[in-house]
Amino acid sequence: MERVLVADAIAESAVAKIKAAGLEVVIRNKEIDEPIEEQIKGFDCVVVRSATKITRDVIEAADKLKLVVRAGVGLDNVDQEAAKNKGVVVQNTPEAPTVSVAEMVFSLLFSMARNVTQADSSMKDERWEKKKYTGTELWNKTLGIIGFGRIGCEVAKRAKAFDMEVLVYDVIDIDELCNQMGVKRSNLNDLIENSDYISLHVPLLPQTKGMIGSKEFALMKKTAFLVNTARGGVVDERALLNALNDGEIAGAALDVFEKEPPLEWELVKHPQLVATPHLSSSTKEAQIRVGELTADKVIAGLK
Question: Active site includes 258?
Fold first, then answer.
């Protein structure tokens, strides 16, 4: 019987589905189990989320591993090159949290535009500061979407419903998609200069690491807001802190960070920043979809 190590928690229904397909499942307990480099031996498949790192050492230590399934979008916690060299297939489930992430973008946009978090905090301190928290509308504003994949498209759809002008940038050919959706393709600098709100939807790669830094903040409108629900390393956090301190931009919202949890909390505590602990795909619906798709990919990959 082929064996599956579930290294990070997935929905119970997904575990049951994998077992029902005739596969043996072991749930990893990080508190008491041996290091994963040791535990991986004897397993045909490992399932991870974002917490467990499948490094070169883990892949080299594995003796039967054929398949790594990342329950979620990114693959930056899996050494894909090492996996390829050893003939290990790597899959993920990017389609599962698409709607949840797109909706989170708008919850963060509104939080910034309408000062929701600051106003709520002041009310809880029994302060009525009606005049202090005058906000701005999304209506007729320009939203710049950097990265026009699955999630970027869902964000654009919702932006159109708010009568926003949408500028999009991607390194791949998106002209036909832009025409279909009624959005405007832009180069990166023009998008950064002309957007009232900017939302990031790119993977963390060497070429995207720190792609929003001091040069980009200097190009932005002083009234602009930045949202990052993609990956922490895409935004240079030190440059963002400086931009907020210097009033180069109006505010930012981060759901993802270079280190999770952050090692430094100065940026998180900044009054012009809305911070959430990587919640974009954390909805009940998305978790069920992630589990179902993960189970399907494990079963298909091993059977």
Answer: no
Tens-place pLDDT, residues 48-107: 998 999 999 999 999 999 999 999 887 889 999 999 999 999 999 988 999 999 999 999
Among the listed residues 28, 49, 158, 231, the single catalytic one is 231
pLDDT (mean) for 229-252: 98
Choose, from 150, 185, 270, 278, the residue flagged as catalytic.
Answer: 278
Domains in the chain with CATH codes: 3-93+284-302 (3.40.50.720), 98-275 (3.40.50.720)
pLDDT higher for 212 or 75? Answer: 212
Is the predicted pLDDT of residue 303 greater than 90, yes or no? no
The reply to whether 201 belongs to the active site is no
The pLDDT of residue 50 is 86
From 34, 81, 95, 260, the catalytic residue: 260
Q: Is 292 a catalytic residue?
A: no
Query: Taking the alpha carbons of 288, 292, 295, 301 in that order, is the dihedral positive or negative?
Result: negative
